[in-house]
Amino acid sequence: MSPPGITRDNATLRFSYTTYGQISDEYGQSLGEDTDFEAVYELGHRFQIIPSFFIQPSVQYIQMPGGTGDIPDAVVLGAWVGAAF
Fold it and tell me: How far is the C-alpha of 5 from the C-alpha of 21, rounded, in Å?
């Protein structure tokens, strides 16, 4: 069941492969680490409350944070809020 005022017409599911970063060997050498890449995937559901305001709860999965493999993959919960004045 949707919150009051929210219909399927003004709510959208979004998935994105938001960021991919290839990390240079030179940067890895400056850290004294082997580096590869970092990637971020995001899943969110946007609720358009009124034409000028939305809320979008989201979950992000971060693969190889920092690009070294030293930090375990992470799940981040958050929300986007947008308003137009």
Answer: 39
Q: CA 66 → CA 8, 17, 36, 40, distances in Å?
A: 38, 17, 9, 11
Give the sheet arrangement for strand 74-83, strand by strand. 11-22, 37-50, 53-63, 74-83
Return the beta strands (E) in 1-85 as ranges.
11-22, 37-50, 53-63, 74-83
Read off the pLDDT of residues 13-46 as tens digits, 9 standing for 90 and up: 888 887 889 988 888 888 888 888 999 999 999 9
Total-model pTM: 0.71
Matching residue, tokens 């400056």? 30
Is the Cα torsion angle 61, 57, 80, 18 positive or negative in sign? Answer: positive
**Cβ partners under 8 Å of residue 33, min gap 6:** 68, 70
Percentage of residues in the chain having pLDDT higher than 70: 89
